[in-house]
Amino acid sequence: MSATRRIRFTLNGQAAAAEIGTHETLVEVLRDRFALFGARESCSQGLCGCCTVLVDGHAVSGCLFLAAAADGVKIQTIEGLASGERLDPVQEAFLECGAFQCGFCTPGFILMTRQLLDENPAPSEDEIRHYLSGNLCRCGAYPEIIEAVKLASHKVKSRTPGGAAP
Amino acid sequence: MTPFDLVEPPSLGEALKLLEPDDSAVRPLAGGTALMLLMKSGFFRPKRLVSLRAAGERLARIRIEPNGELRIGAMVRLAALEWAPEVRRDFPVIGHTLRTLANVRVRNVATLGGHLAHADPHSDLPPVLIALGACLVLAGPRGERAVPVEGFATGHYETVCKGDELIVEATIPPLGRRRAAYAKCTTRSADDWPALGIAVAWDDDGAIRSPRIVLGAATERPTRLKAAEALIAGRTLDGALLTRAGEAAAEEADVVADARGSVSYKKQLVKVYVARALRAAGAGPAAP
Ligand SMILES: Cc1cc2nc3c(=O)[nH]c(=O)nc-3n(C[C@H](O)[C@H](O)[C@H](O)COP(=O)(O)OP(=O)(O)OC[C@H]3O[C@@H](n4cnc5c(N)ncnc54)[C@H](O)[C@@H]3O)c2cc1C
Ligand code: FES
Ligand code: FES
User: Which ipTM did the prediction report?
Assistant: First the structure.
């Protein structure tokens, strides 16, 4: 019976390892072993996006992702998005637009936006709404969130030579 | 959730050996999105999960065969299918359907094999795959067999896939001159499970040939609406035919009530959405 195991992965650019139970979720392990509290469990069902982390660059619900499946992957959490003191353009845009009230949902929205802009640097409002339809904000900051994504898109474009995302 | 034995066999053959058909606490694990919900609610307490993550290249690839057939491995993630260039080009209806299935995060993890094996009657892809005439390849201790997606699900969460079998891949015949569309209705939030989904497809030679009209989500399992199919076969689409097809479909559909709508409401939806799906398929370009 192998009900525990050791996993190794890259966490926000650094090598990491943990002893985990096979039944533990990624969001539990990030919080309990690594004291990373940006991804937080809310609905526990994949519906709200508060537990979003990026696995090999793809957004996943950490509440539905077995930690064991993180063996060998690259994980990025909200804590790893800024480079030192310099915020990611998506983070700046959320601050400048006031795209939150309590902030509980914000890490999830920011990581989803990060993946959206990596795939589609200039999304239409329709595309933004569609992409973020699986994220819930209980404070109802949706109008500001949409504005923040548009602003982030401008920032990303103007920071990248030639205007297009890498 | 409670601890369990988690194994990650390096081949399909090894994976098959680790299944135990007589023990329902031993299950294959794909993306885990459906199993996690069952485990979290305490509904399923596994003894052993057999992860198919490393079970070989055949389960992981998408490719078009020389004859135009699309072959999709069971472990292909729904997002990979949604974005695959060959799928976008040759089977646009699949990408279009996936775009509104669950949310981005679920599609990034959930797999085609898990989606089909789970056999939730509300699933979006089975009606589309049935309309396109898709088959599944199942592997078991006695070798492989092909089964049509039509007839694969036998009821709520039940399929013809036995406890010692695994879905290996799905095959979809080339679209050729087939037109196809999927129309779904969510009655709560935009990303909710559908109250109903209608997939339609037919060969277009000026008239409608070999039509399929498949209803999902509102029925116990995805169901072809054969009276409506017979009504449109050999005809050309016009407003009157759309109305009559919708009415025939609503009449024959054996819909069930749930939190997303009553029987009479869903019958009305069938009428409207059959016409919508037919109109959408008729308006889109037929594949060359
Ligand atoms: C928040 C949320 C919203 C959703 N909304 C929708 C929606 O709108 N529309 C929709 O259609 N679906 C929806 N789904 C369901 C989703 O499509 C399924 O959960 C997913 O496709 C299951 O795939 P998986 O790879 O995660 O399967 P898993 O959870 O790994 O497995 C599911 C089942 O399949 C079995 N299995 C897996 N692979 C194989 C194989 N190769 N051979 C035999 N058996 C196998 C497992 O043992 C298990 O019984 C939603 C899910 C979530 C979490
Ligand atoms: S807590 Fe994971 S999606 Fe809501
Ligand atoms: S800011 Fe409070 S939940 Fe979104």
Answer: 0.94
